Amino acid sequence: MSSRTSETVDQPDAAQVVDSMERMGGGPYPGYRRSSAKGSCFVGTFTPTGEAAALTTAAHLQYQQVPVTVRFSNSEGNPHTPDAAPVTRGMATRFHLPDSTETDLLGITVPLFVASTPQEFLGLTEALRPDPTTGHPDPATVQAYVAAHPHLAPAVMQQPPVPVSYGSAAYWAIHAFIWADARGGRQPVRYRWEPESGRAVLTTEEAATRTADYLTEEFHERLRSGPVAFTLRVQLGEDGDPTHDPTTPWPDTRKELTAGRLELTAPVQDQEHWSGQRFDPTRITAGITLSDDPVLAFRAHAYAESFDRRSRRQRGGWSG
Ligand code: HEM
């Protein structure tokens, strides 16, 4: 039996994984998310093109515009990491649907995830635990982990861009989801937000001149000149394309459609309220189902665990 198969069977529990994430990030940082601790929230609208309407009954992907709330973030669990650090960025979007329910879509600035299973993710976070003497992960331990799991190498080697702006990066939702149409037809999909102004990154020299909070400052400044827009691009999977593995991309030649256009117009009025919210990639709506990706299913438990830990601290009852 390959290590990949056996790791699928021995699923860790969410508390074990969140403990390991806290150690990896030098935390815990009470009151903060155990990943993507630093972020800021904005409001806007999502206008579907109707191109997806034949393939899914999802309310926000038909013809009616819906309000959205978006949280941009830096991936680190340490909320004090400066914005110019070469880490992935997150974009968590909540669509407020006409029937007063909600659905979330979370993306990051690289196309592949670093683990095929929760167990592999736990193994990697353990390998990345800082060495107490240097304060950094031991490169030999990380290399040994990747050598033992060679299918992870392309994802682990990805270099996240340091973007000019939260509004100049593409964000991949990574997992496959399954769309359902009105007649019960099923279509595997993968989502990606593309910035309408184009992708733009900083050179190392430019990044060195940016302030610790430049991404939020720049976004506020950008909004003063008008809305910041993204298009929702959707890759359509074909027979045989794997839906269970977030480390494996589908061929670039797969057909894509544009499901809609997001326009962010202003910061949320109450940042504290919104930073206290829990976005969840498994908060789907009728017309969308989860794929068989074990990482996607596991995330719901890890996010609930992180939410629980940070909320207990916010109520003042926890000292972790
Ligand atoms: C085993 C896999 C993963 C684990 C255990 C994990 C864990 C976490 C945790 C604990 C949080 C903080 C949740 C909270 O307190 O609200 C978080 C946030 C986040 N994660 Fe993951 N994650 C995983 C995979 C991914 C993947 C594949 C993506 C790519 C889309 C992703 C994108 C994000 C984003 C964008 C946030 C910030 C959400 C927000 O702004 O509230 N994560 N993750």
SSE order and pairing:
Layout lengths: L2 H7 L4 H11 L13 E11 L17 E9 L14 E8 L5 E7 L9 H10 L11 H10 L4 H4 L14 E2 L4 E4 L5 E10 L8 H5 L5 H11 L3 E9 L19 E12 L3 H5 L12 E3 L3 H21 L6
Antiparallel strand pairs: 1-2, 1-9, 2-3, 3-4, 5-7, 6-7, 6-10, 7-8, 8-9
Helix pairs in contact: 2-3, 2-9
The structure holds protoporphyrin IX containing FE.
- Spans of at least 5 consecutive residues whose pLDDT stays below 50 are 1-8, 314-320
Order of helix and strand elements from N to C terminus: HHEEEEHHHEEEHHEEHEH
At the fold tier of CATH, the topology name is: Catalase HpII,  Chain A, domain 1
Largest sheet, in brief, is: 10 strands, antiparallel
What hetero molecules are in the model?
protoporphyrin IX containing FE
Arithmetic mean pLDDT: 93
- Rough outline: globular
Computed over alpha carbons, the radius of gyration is: 19 Å
Total number of beta strands: 10
**CATH H-level superfamily title:** Catalase core domain
User: What is the distance, rounded to the nearest whole angstrom, between the alpha carbons of the first and last residues?
Assistant: 39 Å
Key descriptive features of the protein:
320 residues; alpha+beta; Catalase HpII,  Chain A, domain 1; ten-stranded antiparallel beta sheet; 9 helices; 10 strands; 26% helix; 23% strand; disordered N terminus; disordered C terminus; binds protoporphyrin IX containing FE
Explain how this protein is built:
This protein is an alpha+beta fold. It has a single domain (3-314), classed as Catalase HpII,  Chain A, domain 1, CATH 2.40.180. It has 9 helices and 10 strands. It has helices at 3-9, 14-24, 118-127, 139-148, 153-156, 204-208, 214-224, 271-275, 294-314; strands spanning 38-48, 66-74, 89-96, 102-108, 171-172, 177-180, 186-195, 228-236, 256-267, 288-290. Strands 1, 2, 3, 4, 5, 6, 7, 8, 9 and 10 form a 10-stranded antiparallel β-sheet that branches. Strand 6 and strand 7 form a beta hairpin. The longest helix is centred in the last third of the chain and has 21 residues, at 294-314. Mean pLDDT is 93; it is low at 1-8 and 314-320. The protein binds protoporphyrin IX containing FE. Protoporphyrin IX containing FE is lined by residues 17-18, 33-36, 39, 71, 73, 90, 92, 106-108, 113, 118, 121, 173-174, 246, 278-279, 295, 298-299, 302-303, 306-307, 310.
